[in-house]
Amino acid sequence: MENLLEIRELSKSFSLHNLGKNIHAVSGIDIRLGEGDFVGITGKSGSGKSTILKCIYGTYRLQHGSIWYNSKKFGPLNIAEATNRQMIYLRKHEIGYVSQFLNVMPRTTARQLVMQALIEMGRDQVHAEKETEQILSHFELDPELWDSYPATFSGGEKLRLNIARAMVKKPRLLLLDEPTASLDYESKMKVKVLIEQLMQEGTTMLGIFHDLEFMNNLCDREYNMQNGVFTLSH
Q: What is the DSSP letter of 228?
């Protein structure tokens, strides 16, 4: 398998049983990402963009097609057929996901959240503490918040923490679902700096963006999505 990720003829629909309807979210999606590629997806809300990322991450099961991922541990693996154990391993060690929403344990502090991500990757306590403080500082989260519970954070602070937790692991494949939504310009630029750093280190990325200006000079290829299908923008 030459590419890190190959999506072939991906289709996904949802049944609304109470209305007796079947909604097609995406249809006939093909994407190939080599190692170190950054592919961007744009399109209106509801066009099916997030469905693709959730299928790759194993949150949604696809009805048709395949998602081949060249895992460091398992070799070529069709995510559509992966076991729960395999997906848990991939999420911990190889595939990162940044969404607009932060789902955390209610009694876990911001510092603990980021440190847990690093310790899962095999970092020792001393290095995990150092890297945690570096990335929280990079995103200018007030040190007074580091040992607080994220439930008390503003929307922008939660999003910055979510990005920090995913990026600190330097995953092989990073899925970005509107990573700059609700961030101010300065915070967006800090996300961009880290994306550029990860690109230099060889991380492969697939991202969804509304902010087209943010994507300038970042993406190798850009797809526009309309009604669940792709057009290649450039």
A: T
Query: pLDDT tens across 134-193, in order?
Result: 999 988 889 999 999 988 888 778 888 888 888 888 899 999 988 887 788 888 888 888
Q: What is the DSSP letter of 4?
A: S
C-alpha distances out from residue 28 to 63, 86, 119, Å: 11, 26, 39
Give the whole-angstrom CA distance, residue 10 versus residue 12: 7
What kind of fold does domain 34-58+84-232 have according to CATH?
Rossmann fold (3.40.50)
For 42, the 3-state DSSP assignment is strand
Would you tell me the crossing angle of helices 185-200 and 125-138 to the nearest 10 degrees? 140
Handedness of CA 181, 67, 60, 81 (dihedral sign): negative
pTM score, whole prediction: 0.86
> C-alpha distances in angstroms, 150 versus 107, 110, 141, 159, 217?
9, 6, 11, 10, 33
Pairing of strands 21-33, 64-71: unpaired
How far is residue 187's CA from residue 45's CA, in Å, rounded to a whole number?
Answer: 23
pLDDT-derived band at 211 (thresholds 50, 70, 90) equals confident
Backbone angles phi, psi at 29, to 5 degrees: -85, 130
